[in-house]
Structure formats: structure tokens, C-alpha cells
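Q: Here's a chain of 633 amino acids. Please give me its 3D structure as C-alpha cells.
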Amino acid sequence: MPGSYIDRATTHKNTAIKNVDHALYNKIFLQVFHIAYGLIYALVLTFSVELIQRGNIEDTLKWAKLFSTNFFLGYLLIASVFMLIYFITSRTWAASFITGLIFGGAALANYFKIIIRGDPFLPWDLKIGKEAGNILQYVDIEFTPILSFALSIIVLFALIGLLIKQTKLKWKVRLIMTLLISLEIGLTFTQIYVNSKTLQSLKIQDVNWDQVQNYERNGFLMGFLINVKSIVIQQPAKYSKKSLQKIVNTIPANNSNAQADGQKMPNIVMIMSEAFWDPTQFNNLRFSQDPIPTIRKLRKEAVSGWLLSPQFGGSTANPEFEALTGHSMAFLPYGSIAYEQYVKEPMPSLVSYLSNQGYYTVGIHPYVKWFWDREDVYPRLGFEKAIFNEDFEDPEIEAGYISDMSAVKEVIKQYEQNKEETGKPFFSFLVTMENHGTYEDKPYENRTISVTNNNLSEETQHILNNYVQGVKNADTALGYLIDYFEELDEPTVVVMFGDHLPTLGNKYSVYRELGYVKDLDFTAKEYVKLYTTPFVIWNNYDIKPENAGIMNTHYIAPYVLYHAGMEMPKYFRFLLNLKKEIPAYTSFVSLDENNVPRILPSKTMKLKKQQHWLLQYDIMFGKGYMEEQLFSK
């Protein structure tokens, strides 16, 4: 009996040990399975994210093989994020859905932004949620078969996470693993993703002058990560008070075109017209009438030319920023929005300079005041008054927006009020809205112009008819404004320019269909064609014709003051001097002194651009060594 009892006890003990060993084995196996699932899911998600960008399985596989380092580094990030969320939540399904939402959502944002705007999703786009949501309401979102396939794969694998048996990890294990993975992500970011030397050693090229090519070459994930380092503006080499003073000492002492003291300062009315361009540049279209008769007339009578804009198809605030400050977006991260990111305190500008000269200054934008943060930016630039859509009284609505005609009538109204109340010289800057895209469905009720070409697709014909009607209305509004000021005895300057070319179809489809550009791999000449908009400068007291050729948007403020015969601050005189040597430049194309387009600037051009950047950096981000000197006469 005793022996039998001992045998039974021993058997129970052995069974219990076996059960514990089996349970421990199952628990370890399940944990390994969860981790293995996470690594496989990260691989699937990495491939799907790149597939969404490329739209073709074969091209994605070729890219992953050719740029295996880029693919692995993207995979490493997704796998690390998955594991971090897994050890925080101890739930595989949570890690699956959250990781899929983060990276799948970013891939979708990139896909639609490339279609709508022609450039990729960038780190600073995360700051413009309101603006992006506002724009998307006017866009028809189409899910292609390959896009639907990629998203289905992501969702399918995330759902599998729900079916896997969950285990609860000990809090000590979770804490240790969370800290270790966080450390790994931090080190990977600082030592690889944003470390230029490491990227060069891995033969990963930062194509920062052409972000479409940057993402195409490096992949969406690495393209996005490479740009993270640009969030922080780096101090330029040779930045010092001494080097700045040396540049300032070379600036001409005065404006040779300035009027004699005692002459009345002219009113200045500037219009930045939404997506305004000359559609007759499409030489294979027929128009029922001239879409820009006012501009055509002014080209024969006044100052006219073309502005090389920093933007195509959107981000109106950036050419506006250039026009009002003289600063160049070429020195700021590609895709950034200066108003949103950098104008956070009072900044010297054309507006503040004119205000200091005794002008009454008003900014007018017939749209919501929070768009691009204008309600805060305008006072920081020196505007005494700002008017937005809510301030208009019974405006005319065209194609869903306040019309350009109502906008110029508001300019006249503000001028007359100022004349009666203050008698100060008047400065207004109007940013119009009527011809804002998209152009697939703009509800114009009264059409006065049409375009024809027997070889056009129906969709292209419809897009062009909508766009050209907006151009015609903008030109008519300009004519109305000039007719008003032409009758006044007060000297007045009227300026109008386009902010950027319109987005006509997805991926430049209308431009390619009409042969304006050949494909998406633009030459220097094609870049200039896609980024230059017309401008005119008219006055009612000393009008003379002049063809100004092509110049930068950031030259327009000093150019206006020059032709108004006004004294200008040293910074603007520096810009006019710079224009003689570099007529125009952006981050991806330049015009040399002979107006020849170049992708890569010459050594001399680089040196001159560096001088501009040093002065701009000092004003925007530096210690302001030269600010007082630069914005005095």
C-alpha cells in the first residue's frame, strides 16, 4: 500500500511536470508564433506600401531587388513599429491594425497626392490636415484594381491577427522589450534614416531637388524618412555677422529709378490670380475668342513677362510668401509651406516696408481665413487689415467660389473707404479664388468661351473648357479694375500675376495629351514651361512697354517698387542686383544670365544663391544681424 501510494504520487508529480513543461512549451511557441507573424506581416505591409506607389507588381519586385537596402530599411521600420505596439498592448490584432493604419494610410496619402498634385507625401504635410481635407472634398477618388488589391492584402493579414490566440505577457517583459525596441528605433533613426554619411555609405541617394524621383528611386518609406532631417533648418556654412556684412556692403546705395522727394507715392494694387496662365501656350487648341484680351493689350502697353513659380498646381501660399517677402522657397524643404511652418512671428516684408512708409495696407482673400494660416500670417507680415470670405457682402459666386469680379470690386471698395477715412497711399494684395481646381466639374452657369480640338478626349475637352472660362473671367476682372483706376487722378500701379499653373488631369495628363510635355521625366526646358506664369505691371501716369522676360516670383516686389519709381530697402536692391546674374531659380531648375534653363546651376550661380540664402537665413532663422540694415532705405 505505501509503495502503491508513493508510485501514484510520483506518477502525479511527473504528470504535473509534463503538463507544466507542455504549457510552457505552448506559451513559448505561441510567443514565437506571434513574433514570426509580426515579421511576416511587416514584410507583406512593406511590399504593399511600395506596390501602392508603383501600381505594378512586376515593377515593385524589380525595385525591391535592385534597391534591396532601401527595401530592408523600410521593412525594418515597419517591423520595429509592429513589435513596439505588440509589446505595449500585448495584442497581436492591435499591433496589426495600428501598424497597417499608419503605413497603409501614409501610402494612400502619397498615392492621391501624386495623382492630384504631382508630388509625393512629405513629413511636413502632416501639419496641413485641415487644408488637405478641404481640397479632397473637390476630388474624385478612384480605387484602381492594383490599389484595391494592395489594400485588401493589408486588411486580410490584419484580420488574421484577430484569429490568432492571444497570450498575456508579463509586464516586466513588456516593459523591457518596449524600452529596447524604442531604443532601437531611436538609434536607427539618428544613425541611419537621417544620417547623411550613413546613407551615402549605403549608396542611398537623397534626390532632394526632385522628390518624385526621390520616392521613385528610394521607395516611399525611405523617401519619406530621408526628408525627416529637413524638418530642422540647418544653419548655412559661413554664417556670421562678418560674412553677412560683407554681402550687405556690396548692395547698391540707392535705386536709380527712384522719384524725386516730394512726389506723391502711388497706390499699389497687386493681384495674385489663382492658377492664372496663358492657355494659348497650347498651340494646338482653337479658342472661340481670346481668353486673355486684357493681358494681351497690356503686353503691348505696359511691363510684362513671366514668373518662375516655386509651385505647380497648388500650395498657393508659397508663391505668395515669395512675392511678399523676397525670400526663396528654393532654400526651404521641398513641399514645405512657409506660412504654416516658418512665419510664426513678425517678419519684414513688402507690406511692413510700405506700412512704415505711410501706406494703408490690406490683404484680401475671398476664402476661409484659416486656410494656410493666413489669419495669423497677414498681421505678422504687416497688413493693417485682412478681409476673407466672411467679410464680403452679397458676393457673386462663380463655380462654387466668390468670383474674381466680386474680389476686385472689394479692392475698389477698400480703396474708396481708405481715401475717405485716412487719405493714406493705398496698398492691397488680393489672392483670388474663382479658378481654383479641380476642373473636372466646375459649375459655370454663364459660359462665354470654349476650346476645340478634334483629337481631344471628352474628359480633356471638359477640363479645358472649365479652366479657360476661369481664365477669361480673371482677365475680365483685371480689365474692370484697370478701367476704374485709369479714370482717377491719383497715381496708381496695378500688378497681376499667376501663382502657379493649373493641375489639368491626373499626372499632367492634359499637358501630355496636348504635347506640352512629353512624359513625366521633365527636361530643364519643360520644368520652366510648367512653372512659369504671366505677369503685368500697369500704371495710370507713366506707362511704358517693357518685356521683362522670365524672372522669379521672389523678384516681383522689388521689381514693382522699381517701376513705381520708389525707394526700396537694401534687401530688395540686393535682389534686383541678383536678378541680373540669375534671372530665375527654384530648387530644381535655374536660368543663367543668358536665360538658358539648367538643372544644375554653375559654380557662379551657386555662389550667388548662397549669398541670398545667407541673408534669408539671417532674417528667418538666424540672429537678425542684418535685419535693420536690410529693411532700411
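Q: Can you summarize the key feature?
A: The longest strand covers residues 532-539.
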